[in-house]
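Quick log. Single chain, no ligands specified.
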Amino acid sequence: MKRILVNGAGGFIGGHLVKRLKAEGLWVRGTDLKAHEYTRLPTDEFLQGDLRDQAFAQKAVQGIDEVYQLAADMGGAGYIFTGEHDADVMHNSATINLNTLHFGRLAGIKKFFYSSSACIYPAHNQEDPNNPICSEDSAYPANPDSEYGWEKLFSERLYFSYMRNYGLEVHVARFHNIFGPEGTWDGGKEKAPAALCRKVAMAKDGGEIEIWGDGLQTRSFLYVDECLEGVRRMMESKEPGPLNIGSEEMVTINQLAEMAMGIAGKKLSIKHIAGPLGVRGRNSDNRLIQKKLGWAPSRPLKEGMEKTYRWIEKQVQAKTAPARK
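-> predicted structure:
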């Protein structure tokens, strides 16, 4: 049986990936700094430890056939764009990738998936919220809007360097705002869909929620199940990438908030406040993935938002329920 390693299994996408791989009948080892916060993972092995540590990274790759490298120091706009975590973000994530590739190659692993990000795209191509440019070939000349994006771009090049120099099979995907249940929804590292679902769930009908900026900044958001479908199709192909894995259904943050309100059945007003924003516009360009894999994400945003809202609503209710005596 093929033996798979999922780095970052205790995280949102990694946890869903473990479930997908186990459903396909594969043997799965997961690694992370912590156990998954919201679900019990069906891993065959789970190694809790720090992939920045060489000894742990070396242990993680033993006896493995394929690696899915999703481990990273990351979060939403409130974490990435303040500038307060730049050194940690770059050092931690780069060290994880360097260790994973180095010790993975020495252990004889030939096949790697790396989750890059749409944050690698040049900031100057994303100033118009209605017409962002995010085709894969637009990445250079490089000008990411954050140190998180710069690290992702460096690590893309690292994986392709190992492919050229050591003959590894490498697959690199650029994720565009993946969301869904069983992910961070509060505490500062949550992304926009989860944050807005939480705010709407906590607000009383007729109340108010806050949004950073004017809310006219645009994004596309991809439900996690479609992300995993793209990842698995890519890994079963000969396509190294990089390929965008994201939705082309672009919305403003105001529209996303209104969608959450509609799902909740609440009428709320929006108060726009100052806060970290990132680029003005971003949307996945799916022409290349359609050409290379004959597939692209297609499910409507509202479908995923409904599932996500219901899950977060339950988390909010559980957290705010009065303690039993």
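DSSP finds ten helices and 13 strands in the chain.
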